[in-house]
Specification:
Serine Threonine Protein Phosphatase 5, Tetratricopeptide repeat, two-stranded antiparallel sheet, binds adenosine-5'-triphosphate, 67% helix, 9 helices, binds magnesium ion
């Protein structure tokens, strides 16, 4: 795939809904250790509605699709992650308005805008043990490899997201509910970093399909 089309974007988010439903218990178990055991339920619930809402939008521009995703996540996912992922897709929508396809460079710009949206909303930095620890290196890797094409960029990004998520295990949380645990948050993988790793893995799976 050389271009992430509107149909591919819908495939990505529909596949992600399936993945979050399959991984619901795992994500919730991660959140049980250092949070309130709802991350899997939050992501599964939100993306189930996302998949329903976007299925009729294949003939729309990508900005319209992402805006629908953002509004759906903000209204259906409680907790921290709904507004955070909502901000990701709202800012991604801002740079994809009117576009029906994204080349690798444009997809990198879209992901960077999304990342900036999450940072603006949550004020987390790398090392705070949040989804930012997976998202920041993933977006950087995607952009660094964009010149090699969409598949290569998505491949590097999913690897960086995976490594970023794994890097959260020894960290002490500085943001979100897990930060209330202080030192006791160390030794557990951050649930939001795992859902972000899945987001990039699923993007890769769609791009190389
Ligand atoms: N300020 C933040 N910036 C970025 N990510 C954050 C921030 N706060 C929390 N997160 C991410 O959100 C994940 C938790 O999402 P979840 O769906 O479980 O919401 P929650 O923390 O239970 O929300 P609430 O505390 O409002 O119920 C964390 O694992 C972390 O990755
Ligand atoms: Mg939670």
């Amino acid at each position: 795939m050389n271009e992430l089309t509107a149909a591919a974007v819908i495939d990505w988010l529909t596949a992600l809904s399936k993945v979050y439903n399959e991984k619901k218990d795992y994500l919730t178990d991660l959140d049980r250790a250092i949070g309130d055991a709802d991350h899997g339920a939050n992501m599964a619930r939100g993306f189930t509605v996302v998949a329903e809402k976007i299925s009729p939008l294949a003939d729309k521009d990508i900005g319209t699709i992402f805006k629908t995703v953002a509004m759906t996540l903000i209204s259906t996912v409680g907790g921290a992650s709904g507004p955070l992922y909502g901000s990701f897709f709202l800012q991604a929508a801002g740079v994809t308005n009117g576009k029906t396809g994204l080349n690798a460079g444009e997809a990198g710009t879209m992901l960077e805008a999304g990342l900036k949206g999450v940072v603006a909303r949550g004020k987390a930095a790398v090392g705070d043990k949040t989804m930012i620890d997976a998202m920041t290196p993933a977006v950087a890797a995607f952009q660094a490899a964009a010149g090699e094409g969409l598949s290569s960029a998505a491949d590097k990004a999913r690897q960086a997201a995976r490594a970023g998520a794994d890097s959260t295990t020894p960290l002490v949380a500085k943001k979100g509910r897990a930060s209330y645990l202080g030192e006791r948050s160390a030794g557990h993988l951050d649930p939001g970093s795992e859902s972000t790793a899945l987001l990039f893995q699923t993007l890769y799976d769609i791009v190389v399909k």
